[in-house]
Write a structure and sequence with these properties.
- The protein is α+β, with helices and mostly antiparallel strands.
- The protein has helices at residues 37-42, 47-69, 77-93, 98-143, 149-160, 168-176, and strands spanning 2-4, 13-15, 18-23, 26-31.
- The protein folds into two domains: 2-31, no CATH class; 44-181, no CATH class.
- Helix content is 62%, strand content 10%.
- It is elongated, with a radius of gyration of 33 Å.
């Protein structure tokens, strides 16, 4: 394809196997190809092209699903292209199915965000529980007589050693068995 910036002749249309047409950048000159839609869909010489096109279509759907599963404030368009490229390689080189590729990419890129969200929610719950327990502690102090003050100090030590004061990471490390016993 050639672009003629300042054409001398006002050519437009088809001249044999060459086509001329105008665009804002100038006069475009290109050759007609013998490829037609019918030939690409039926001809055995395009069998590999069709196979690759189907693989790319599947990879783009997988990449789109992974991209949409990410948080909106984190997404960038280059990530979508990277996901599609990775999915295409997995489909082609490793011979994985579409479901296997989707699960693999999901476990690599998206599950991290779900784990972080669960940690934040657990920390917020523990903070809410600790604030509720301190409110209850204050209410108990105001309703107890002076004679029962010694029993109240024992009650406070029990409340302080309660598990509500521990962070969510402590519970996760204990539940996965990664921390000390």
């Amino acid at each position: 394809m050639a672009i003629i910036r300042k054409p001398l002749l006002p050519l437009k249309g088809r001249y044999g196997r060459v086509v001329f047409y105008h665009l804002p950048c100038g006069l475009i000159c290109r050759f007609l190809t013998p490829h037609t839609r019918k030939r690409i869909l039926k001809d055995p010489t395009f069998a590999e092209f069709r196979k690759c096109s189907k693989r790319m279509a599947k990879a783009s759907k997988i990449g789109s699903a992974v991209y949409k599963a990410l948080p909106e404030d984190f997404r960038q368009f280059w990530m979508y292209r990277a996901f599609v490229g990775e999915a295409f390689k997995m489909l082609k080189d490793e011979g994985m199915t579409g479901e296997q590729v989707l699960e693999s990419l999901f476990s690599i890129y998206v599950e991290v965000w779900y784990i972080k969200a669960e940690l934040r929610a657990a920390e917020q719950r523990s903070a809410a529980r600790s604030s509720i327990s301190t409110k209850r502690r204050n209410e108990v102090k105001s309703n107890i007589c002076w004679k029962q003050y010694n029993q109240l100090s024992d009650l406070e030590s029990i409340i302080h050693t309660n598990t509500f004061d521990k962070s969510a990471s402590y519970y996760l490390s204990r539940s996965f068995g990664t921390g000390p016993p």
